[in-house]
Structure formats: C-alpha cells, structure tokens
Amino acid sequence: MKKRKKVSSVNVRGFSKKTDLFFNIIIALIAFSCVFPFIFVVIISLTSEHSLAVDGYQLWPSEWSLDGYRYLYSLRGKILQALFITVFVTVLGTLVNVVFTSTYAYAISRPTFQYRRFFTIFALITMLFSAGMVPNYIVMTNMLNLKDTIWALILPLALSPFNIIVMRTFFRRSVPDAIIESARIDGAGELRTFVQIVLPLAVPGIATISLFAALAYWNDWFNGLLYIQSDNLVPLQYLLMKIQNNIDFMTKNAAMSATLAAAGETIPKEATRMAMVVISTVPIAASYPFFQRYFISGLTIGGVKE
C-alpha cells in the first residue's frame, strides 16, 4: 500500500500559513501606524488645557475636556458658513475637474486624433514648469475679474495634468478601439460614444481622479488667501488658519494688553488646534470608503507607464 505524500499547508496564493500570518501582521502594523497619529490628535483635542500644560501629550490624559470644541462651537456661525462654501466648492469643483480632465484625456488617448502628441506634451510641460504666482494673480483678478467670487476658488484647480495622464493611460488600456469603431459604425457621434460607452467603462478611473480633485479642493486655503476678501466666501481651511493665527497673536502679545492676556488665558490653545485638525479631516476621510472599491483598480490601471 503506497504511502500518501504529506501535503504542506499552503494557501491559494502560494505562501505557507506562517508566512501569510507574518505578512498580515506586518501589514496590520503599517496600517495601525497610519491611523495612530489621527487617533492621537483626537485624544489631544479631548484633553484639558491644564493637563496638557502639566503632563504634556499623553494617550490617556489625567483630565478630559471638550473646551477646544466648545471654543469652536462659539464660532459656529462662521465655521458653518465656511463649511458650506468648502462643500459647495468641493462638489462643483470636482465635477468641473472631472469633466475637463476626462474629455481632455479621452481626446489624446485616441489614435485617430491628429494632434494627440502635441496636447500630451503640452500637458506634461505644465507639470514641470509654472508661470508663477504673480502672473496667475494678474490673470485671475485683472483679466478674468474673478477676485472675491466663488469661481476664484474653483477655476485654479479645474484641470490637473497628473489626472490627465492617469486617465489617458486608463482610456488606452481599458477602452478597446473595437468598441469605439462599432459605435461609429452604428452612427453614434463622438459625444454620444463618450457618454454612453466610454464613461461606463471608465468608472474606476473617474472615481480615482474624483478623489484626487476632491482632496485638492477640500484642503485648499491658498486661493482663499489670494482672492477672497468677503467673509461670506471664506473656505473652511482658510478660516481655521485665521483662527489659528488669531490664537497665536493673542498668545504672543498677551503682555501688551490686559484684554489680550485675559482672552489668551480662556482659550484652550492646544486642544483647539487639534480640534481644528479633526474638524477639517473627518468629513473628507469619511468619503474615502465610498471611493475605495474603484480607487485601487483605477490607480493601478491608469498609473502604468506605456
């Protein structure tokens, strides 16, 4: 009677169970190291100012407090207005960015487009060279007259050369030319082909560049600093930066005025700083799971160099 050969415990991917467990532990540690800083920021934002002054930063503070959030709640009118502006700019700006980027990338991805090489190089050059802040400011304010308007927060980020290259590669690898030719034979025009055939096939790529664009708009404060003077159009990130600057001003100049000294003592400076980080991070972080299903596939397919 033949002896049966002992089969080693190997999983589907070709690794032994011990090796698979080892890599899972390594990946879990890396994931925890990415999440831990944000958890620590949340803990600090819930720590009392007295505990921070005496004990410093701790994972389990001796005294918990919501003073940082209470101070920001006292400014809720301005913060809610800035949050509305930021959400509006992020949603509308992302739509504008995706439309411009996807149509540009689709055009230069088609071999039948005569000037695809020129426009590809044109997009690549803008990634390497920039006119600078002064020409951009002159164009936005003097030529386009967009200063102190909502479009001053949208148009500067309306087109991304990096996203164009990602989508160009994605279209070339994921949309076969045979499908495009079949649509043309059936009488479909370029716009109908793009909307009804190409876009449904490009959902992972669209989700990827949408996430990139949304992050850029959400975190943008510099355009608000340059172009916005009205308090009703200030974005959230710029408002939080102004609050931070005001706290620093009161702290550094407390000796000059009794009023500043009294105000500086009542404001929980460190907790407020961390609370601002939490407020500005949580909304955009909460949207990531909705894009995660498409994000990895879109980035890996669109990011391959051809």
From TrEMBL:
Keywords: Cell membrane, Membrane, Transmembrane, Transmembrane helix, Transport. GO terms for biological process: transmembrane transport. Its main location: membrane. Residues 83-268 form the ABC transmembrane type-1 domain. The chain crosses the membrane at residues 21-46, 79-106, 118-138, 150-171, 191-218, 274-291. InterPro entries: MetI-like (IPR000515), MetI-like_sf (IPR035906). It is a multi-pass membrane protein. Pfam families: BPD_transp_1. It is found in: Cell membrane. CDD domains: TM_PBP2 (cd06261). GO terms for cellular component: plasma membrane. Gene3D superfamilies: MetI-like (1.10.3720.10). The keyword Transmembrane applies. PANTHER family: ABC TRANSPORTER PERMEASE PROTEIN MG189-RELATED-RELATED, POLYGALACTURONAN_RHAMNOGALACTURONAN TRANSPORT SYSTEM PERMEASE PROTEIN YTCP. Belongs to the binding-protein-dependent transport system permease family. This is Sugar ABC transporter permease.
